[in-house]
Design goal:
The complex is a heterodimer of chains A (231) and B (90). Chain A is of the alpha/beta class and 231 residues long. Chain A has helices spanning 9-17, 27-36, 72-83, 98-103, 123-136, 162-166, 182-201; strands at 19-23, 43-47, 88-92, 115-118, 140-146, 149-155, 211-216, 221-227. The longest helix of chain A has 20 residues, at 182-201. The longest helix of chain B has 11 residues, at 41-51. Classes of the chains: A alpha/beta (231), B alpha+beta (90). β8 (221-227) of chain A pairs parallel with β6 (67-68) of chain B.
């Protein structure tokens, strides 16, 4: 693979051995998967209850008009296996909750995944992911987008999670009320994949493991805010 | 981020920097406010929401000097203040 020399031997081995859960295969998820699928013969676990709808097509790059009404995870798995037949993909066409996650493991105390990509599209879904992170101490590569804007961070422990940063219990905005540009989604998804590759090199720290990155697509600016761990 | 602080006893006039969709609300990336400092990050948030009730509809945290402090951390005078929204979409 052409990118192989860019990683150390240890980093490459960690990449190839990683079991990766993708929470949400919509905008962020389909961009993330497009990159991950070409990285290595990865083990991927996809979770998303949604079916492809017409408004999704402006940014969800794995899907086309022929996929309208189909489960996203099934379509995504098909496309990815065509792209890279060496991928090992398990797909769950349902919402990711700590209860269902536990039920789908062969042993209650074994997450059987090594890292999680937070590509979810609501605060309530992220609350479910926070429960999984709390129970299994999984690293989470987070991104969120809205309109011209987005954010990304990496939460390496439950003590430093999405809820720790933004708190609990926020009013949901209906998905139809959240216009989003594809290029903004692409920037944040690429950042998540970059963070994952940094994790492969050093699981103890990544560039955004104690930092919130803010992207403004209107002004093409990126700001970084340090996260205080004292809470 | 930039800031301006003008002391007036305990009440302090500040300019607050905003990010993301909050810039649409304030038609720019800064807005003026008067706050009582020092205060904790949570108290500062409450003061800003009281002056600009539209903020109550948004999920955001208060950053101080390019750091997102614990909610109980004190915000000193002449601090650089910014509001960071949370983005739900994916």
């Amino acid at each position: 693979m052409r990118h192989r020399p860019l990683l150390s031997e240890e980093g490459w081995e960690r990449l190839c051995g990683a079991r990766i859960l993708i929470a949400g295969v919509g905008g962020l998820g389909s961009h993330v998967l497009g990159s991950l699928g070409r990285l290595a013969p990865l083990v991927l676990e996809l979770w998303d209850p949604g079916v492809t709808d017409e408004p999704d097509l402006n940014r969800q790059v794995l899907y086309g008009p022929q996929d309208l009404g189909r489960n996203k995870v099934e379509t995504a798995a098909e496309r990815l296996c065509t792209q890279n037949p060496e991928l090992k993909i398990t797909a769950f066409a349902e919402a990711l909750t700590v209860e269902r996650f536990a039920e789908t493991r062969s042993a209650a105390d074994a997450p059987e995944v090594d890292v999680v990509f937070d590509c979810l599209d609501s605060f309530s879904a992220r609350a479910g992911l926070a429960d999984i992170q709390l129970r299994y101490e999984l690293p989470v590569f987070h991104a969120g987008v809205e309109g011209w804007y987005g954010q990304a961070s990496t939460f390496l422990s439950a003590a430093h999670s999405y809820e720790q940063v933004f708190g609990k219990g926020f009013r949901e905005i209906p998905p139809a009320g959240k216009p989003i540009f594809a290029h903004v989604v692409a920037v944040l998804a690429a950042t998540q994949v970059s963070e994952f590759l940094s994790w492969c090199e050093d699981p103890g720290r990544t560039p955004l493991s104690h930092t919130l990155l803010l992207y403004d697509g209107r002004s093409s600016t990126i700001d970084k805010i340090a996260l205080d761990n004292s809470e | 981020m930039s800031y301006e602080v003008e002391n007036a006893g305990q009440m302090t006039a500040v300019h607050v920097t905003v990010f993301g969709p909050l810039t649409d609300i304030f038609s720019g990336n800064r807005f003026p406010a008067t706050v009582t400092l020092p205060a904790t990050a949570d108290e500062l948030r409450e003061q800003l929401v009281e002056q600009y009730p539209v903020l109550a509809d948004h999920r955001f945290r208060v950053a101080v000097d390019d750091v997102l402090p614990a909610s109980s951390s004190p915000v000193r005078e002449a601090a650089e203040i910014a509001l960071l929204p949370a983005f739900a979409g994916g």
